[in-house]
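**Reference record**
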Amino acid sequence: MLESLGSLTGSPWIYAVIAVSIVLDVFLPVLPSGVLLITAATAAAGSATAAGNVPHAVPDILVLTLCAATASVLGDMVAYRLAWRGGDWLDRAIARSRRLTRAQERLGEALARAGGAHGVLVIVARFAPAGRSVVSLGAGAARRRIGEFLPWSVLAGLAWAGYSVALGYFGGQWLGATWLTTGISVGALFIAGAGAAYVVRRPVAAREREAGT
């Protein structure tokens, strides 16, 4: 059972650990912030079940969701501002990376539009591996206005946090708060990430095929 995680899962410190992990993983995408968030949500499901479906004080799914979403936006803004002020060294680094160069080109159009499928790119990229890093740094390096980027960052953070917490919590409610449940929920998060990566890459691949014909 996930109660064996010890005092951290049932302590308010879990929120701080999750928040720090999410803020930093915009620079270090290898940090397991999603895994940690799902684990805490699964533990919350176990606490609710043990208390007769009355949510335990810690961890609380609403606080987990708001904490994760807020940390996601904060990390995005830090990366955005650093890229905005990056100067020539960042421009050179982006120029050496085809991935960042392509992302910067796509975001020029995506962030300039306030609705439709173009703006959704920012939300979808939040689920893709390293997609958040590419989007935040690309938006800052492209000098996009904060009003063009921030609303999509908020929506992306809420969507990712809500999805991750829901995976852990409802998985724990339906299958029991076990490590197997956590593994299944994490697998579902990775599947969503793979799907998001495909969606983000598809327009670029289509344009490259057209250019080659």
